């Protein structure tokens, strides 16, 4: 079977690696160059989306910021999963919030802001502190403003107004104001929904961010009540979208009650631990779902942590006895994800020990959340 992935980054690459044993041939559409490329070697296989669509049995996506005309062409082919509506929803916070409300899942109070009157209204209704996020093109904490006190309102509004005016999608761009949630921690749930409606849902994973970018994700022991809460919200959101494929949901954990922060209609960075820690990894389960194959088990087989390699960083080979290293073959740039490291163990406390041992080989500045994750695991064990 031939699968075309919209996007030619590391997620398409890892899909290709996971799909090979199933005889699934993956190609990737690079939205910037307009070429269809091999997702691992990036060799150009052909030019143009039409060519890619014609050669594909199935089309999917590895990111959500895709031009509407590209999505439309794929949708019209009848081969696209999870489909246009799911990708548009993941890429537009306004649509995402409406979906969360429709699915009846707990999420932060919000207001759509298009002008100063909406902004003032939001301050009065939601209260301060407040967080403001661009509806389109927001990721890894980009396109966000924090309004802590009323005396900052004019300055923050000036920034937002300039941003809206400069937006190349001015007709569709707006800002969502959200209540500031005082969460204890951030967790996410990754799951697949098959064409038969069956679900394969992984255990929750805890995420530690640095400067808005995921640093470390730990899948160890989570309590059953929290998992049940997350799964019921997953079911509601996936059903509301009639979703097919892997869907990721990021939550705030507020004293044992989960609140959805955002969804991603694709395989997700906080699911990379499944490559070594789960029976069948997220990449394979995504392919199984979109290709109409039965889903595989999402059981965690051992506590596992994922550590992102970000920026202009080198990693010594001395970590290899402790780690599974996944490089993306990308040129290092500040803030860019260029690889990740999966660390496994037979128990939660051993995972903490392994992360601590890993940290002795790596720079604290480059891997700032590693020790924090190790200490948390040891405290909880
Ligand atoms: P996002 O791009 O929506 O995932 O936001 C990036 C990060 O900002 C999140 O991982 C949170 O740490 C923080 N954040 C986002 N929304 C809120 C909120 N409503 N209240 C508090 N912190 C938030």
Automatic annotation (TrEMBL):
Organism: Enterovibrio norvegicus
Sites where the protein binds ATP: 93, 133, 138-144, 178-181, 186, 209, 261-262
Domain ATP-grasp: 97-291
Its EC number(s): 6.3.4.18
GO MF term set: 5-(carboxyamino)imidazole ribonucleotide synthase activity
Keyword Signal: no
Enzyme class: ligase
Protein name per the record: N5-carboxyaminoimidazole ribonucleotide synthase
Similarity annotation: Belongs to the PurK/PurT family.
Key words of the record: ATP-binding, Ligase, Nucleotide-binding, Purine biosynthesis
Pathway: Purine metabolism; IMP biosynthesis via de novo pathway; 5-amino-1-(5-phospho-D-ribosyl)imidazole-4-carboxylate from 5-amino-1-(5-phospho-D-ribosyl)imidazole (N5-CAIR route): step 1/2
Subunit details: Homodimer.
Function: Catalyzes the ATP-dependent conversion of 5-aminoimidazole ribonucleotide (AIR) and HCO(3)- to N5-carboxyaminoimidazole ribonucleotide (N5-CAIR).
Catalytic activity: 5-amino-1-(5-phospho-beta-D-ribosyl)imidazole + hydrogencarbonate + ATP = 5-carboxyamino-1-(5-phospho-D-ribosyl)imidazole + ADP + phosphate + 2 H(+)
Lipoprotein recorded as keyword: no
Pfam families: ATP-grasp, PurK_C, RS_preATP-grasp-like
Cited HAMAP family: PurK
